[in-house]
Design a protein that fits this description.
Helix content: 25-40%
CATH topology: Aminopeptidase
CATH architecture: 3-Layer(aba) Sandwich
Order of helices and strands: EEEHHHEEEHEHEEHH
CATH superfamily: Gcn5-related N-acetyltransferase (GNAT)
Number of domains: 1
Largest sheet: 9 strands, mixed
Radius of gyration: 16 Å
Oligomer: single chain
Structural class: alpha+beta
CATH class: Alpha Beta
Number of strands: 9
Shape: globular
Strand order of the largest sheet: 1-2-3-4-5-6-7-9-8
Bound molecules: coenzyme A
Distance between the termini: 31 Å
């Protein structure tokens, strides 16, 4: 099975309420999710999501133990401009509170604007059914649309699952030592057509949506 295969994305239609920016998708096990830009109003969702992650997952994401996030950190994670710092989250559309299920972000390098450091996080109960792939594809598509060419991932050496995942997608090792593995994922389309046709198709599908999530075909 190719990365991305089996995931479905559903563009917004013209009847969707305007506050519902983003798009809907169906995960590999049939779970519906909504993907949308992170906003300042998502601070509680980040905090609540953290409570549904194991200490090990939190350590892999932040490279340190985190019991709770400071208000400064929450501002950094949610008050984003979607240009220098792009962040999208997945929420449960069937939950009246639309709690968060995962989040992905890309923060541009201050010196090389075409390179950005990225991170993907999925809360533990939703792992293994394609949400991480969907979030990664969303950030790759949005980043590429905004001129980002390289997604740089900083991964702890023991986080083998993620190292293997990025390498299967064609990521190049920039640094590998006992403290850190740096991997660069080339966001240009031809690179993926070879290594990951389904992931490539997924990013193209998301890239073809309008900024508000509607299909250009409508
Ligand atoms: C990394 C993470 C986002 C993946 O989320 P996810 O929703 O489980 O991802 P997916 O279901 O899309 O799977 C992604 C890949 O990992 C593989 N994978 C997922 N769970 C796996 C498991 N238990 N064992 C082996 N491989 C697994 C999948 O097969 C897939 O690879 P493929 O597409 O080549 O088949 C999630 O594990 C996480 O939040 N980890 C903690 C934070 C972290 O480490 N982030 C990355 C560094 S910033």
């Amino acid at each position: 099975m190719f990365p991305g295969e089996g995931l479905q994305i559903h563009p917004r239609n013209t009847e969707s309420p305007p506050h519902e920016a983003g798009f809907h998708a169906t995960l590999l096990d049939g779970t519906p999710v909504r993907l949308r830009p992170v906003t300042a109003a998502d601070k509680w969702r980040i905090e609540e999501g953290l409570s549904r992650m194991s200490p090990g997952s939190i350590y892999h994401r932040f490279c340190r133990n985190v019991a709770e996030l400071s208000s400064r950190e929450l501002r950094y994670l949610t008050e984003v401009d979607q240009v220098r710092h792009i962040a999208w989250g997945a929420v449960d559309p069937e939950d009246p509170e639309e709690r968060g299920l995962g989040v992905a972000r890309l923060v541009r390098d201050t010196e090389i604007a075409s390179r950005a450091e990225g991170a993907v996080t999925v809360i533990d109960p939703y792992r293994g059914v394609g949400l991480g792939t969907l979030l990664l594809a969303t950030l790759c598509a949005l980043g590429r649309r905004q001129g980002i060419r390289t997604f740089r991932a900083c991964i702890l050496p023991e986080n083998q699952l993620v190292i293997d995942w990025f390498r299967r997608l064609g990521a190049r090792t920039v640094q590998e030592d006992p403290t850190l593995v740096l991997l660069d994922l080339d966001l240009s389309e031809p690179a993926w057509r070879q290594t990951s046709p389904a992931f490539s198709g997924l990013t193209r599908g998301i890239e073809s949506l309008q900024p508000d999530g509607q299909s250009k075909m409508e």
